[in-house]
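Bench notes, afternoon.
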Amino acid sequence: MTASIIDGRAIAGQIRSEVAQRVMALVDDGVQPGLAAVLVGEDEASHIYVSTKQKACADVGIRSEQVNLPAFVTEGELLAAIRRLNRDPQLHGVIVQLPLPRHISELRAQTAIDPSKDVDGLHPMNVGLMVRGEPAFPPATPYGIVELLLRSGVRLDGAEVVVVGYGELVGAPLSIMLAQDSIRGNATVTISHVRTRDLATHTRRADILVAAAGVPGLITADMVKPGAVVVDVGVHRTDEGLIGDVRFDEVREVAGMITPVPGGVGPMTVAMLLVNTVTAAELLTEKR
């Protein structure tokens, strides 16, 4: 058996087309959605991610703004910049690119963003709404994973899902979303991590296996149930190029469906950020 590839780029392209239609409707009403990204320091990966998001915004008609701050910026200066963006009526979404320098609290930065403009879905208020099953803005990567599965015809209702990794950006919110009583959930979710005793015992039970541990090549073929759907969230830069948490070449011979790295989850994260941004613009426009 060789797994079929879940093409995140193609599905993200469909979503971007849908977003572009929604943007056009807003523009016809005199509103152009706007997204601001705050970038602190010179982290190469962060610069690449932000430029990718800006290009995606341009492709669908969302105005983008980038605020570059030096690595030595004080926390107070960063929070002041965020508050300025909150007050700008032409901006409907504000994101702070992670990671931040050690001397700045990520939580304080996330909390400073106006919840109605928090299109990354990381403000504690929006996290709480997501836990209650009433998200205004679901976190982009978990949101993208769920959408990727649904649009690939993967049934979630009743599925055994094992999530490897319980990070606050992916593993934790994804586990909650998949377990909730909704058309995007109703799965039976097992949460595991790199310190789980006999990890393979758990992963081999999964109909859907999500690798989000941040460990290159952690998931091997003998850890995968034949025919399972494998979603690789990991992104690691090596001399040979980008690789994920899954040993792709060997696991694809066991799995039924698998996401590649690159070209799987990554494009979906950007696409769902666009969805959240146009949703924010629509909600803020309704309040005028």
